Amino acid sequence: MATRFDEMNCNAQCRHCNRFDEGNMQGYRKGLVSKYGEQAVMLLEAKKNQSRKYSDFEYEILIKHYKELSKKLRKEKGI
């Protein structure tokens, strides 16, 4: 749960890797390192072992943030 809403942990994979290679964790990690750097990936890996409980207020803030971001992206793409 600690990395569920971490945008650095949200990246696309091909269907084969995601479905048949159980996420291709080694390849996924290599991609993260090339995109964000080794230190940022190590911080993300450390974060995954922590427990995180969100309050209702925090969920509401996250919902508001992502709704606004979605509107912005849709407007940019003309959808």
What can you tell me about this protein's structure?
This protein has 79 residues and is mainly alpha-helical. The protein has four helices and no strands. It has helices at 15-20, 25-36, 38-47, 56-77. The longest helix is centred in the C-terminal third of the chain and has 22 residues, at 56-77.
Strand and helix layout:
Blueprint: H1 15-20, H2 25-36, H3 38-47, H4 56-77
Question: Which key phrases capture this entry?
Answer:
79 residues
Q: Per DSSP, what share of the residues sits in E-state strands of 2 or more residues? A: under 5%
Mean of pLDDT? 90
- In DSSP terms (H or I, runs of 4 or more residues), the helix count works out at 4
The largest pleated sheet is described as:
none
> Segments where pLDDT lies below 50 for 5+ residues?
none
Instruction: Give the helix proportion (percent range).
Output: 55-70%
C-alpha-based Rg, rounded = 15 Å
* Structural class based on helices, strands and sheet pairing: mainly alpha
Order of helices and strands: HHHH
Task: Give the end-to-end Cα distance, rounded to a whole number of Å.
Answer: 31 Å
How many DSSP E strands? 0
Instruction: State the shape.
Output: globular
